[in-house]
Amino acid sequence: MTAFARPSLIHDRYAEIAQTSVYTYDDDDLVNYAEFLQNHGRYMTKGGYVDSSRRIRSLYRQQEGTQLSKHDASSTGNLLLPSLGKSTSSAPTTTGPRKSKGFDLSNSLSTSTNLKNQAKEFEKQMRLIKSEMIKAKKSEREVKRLEGDIKKEQQHLRQSLRKLDVDTTAKRYKSEKKLSKNLEEKDTIEREFVKTREKQTRQRTDHNIDALQTTKDKGRRNLLLCNDLARQYKAK
Description:
Elements: H1 9-17, H2 33-39, E1 43-45, E2 48-50, H3 56-84, H4 86-235
């Protein structure tokens, strides 16, 4: 930028708009963004913008002090005017423009320095707000990532529990089926055992009856033979 180039009007416009407070903010003020805006909001007064509710009371006190000083100065001026006459009325006209020019120059310098300081403070505040927003977004992403991991773990646990339930049901069904089969085999074996025992008892009884009958037949035949031999002996 050359020495003859005109400054940017937009820069001057934003420099005038950036009427922020010189108050340095703590990190605790930036935790809650709504409270931050409420505590550091801009308020329009007769003397310009006030960028913090904390400075309103001090501004009111300054305004009251200036009003009282003006009132005292006007009262003392009214008391001195009748005694001084025309000589006193002509004296301020000669010194007034010089004092006003010096006051305007100092006022412009102070306003320019205040604007620069306020612009720096505004940029600092914006950087702090951006950093806090970045931190909030980062923490939100971390929370969402943790939530996603927890949901995945819950889904995995549900699938594992469902699979375990299915396996347990299948094993219980197989064990019950095997138990019922064993009970049926046991009943079959018991029935066959009873049948074989009854058959053996019946066979043993029949064998005993047959043996008794044969012994009776043998005894009867022997008795008949003895009787025949006795008759033959008697006949001789």
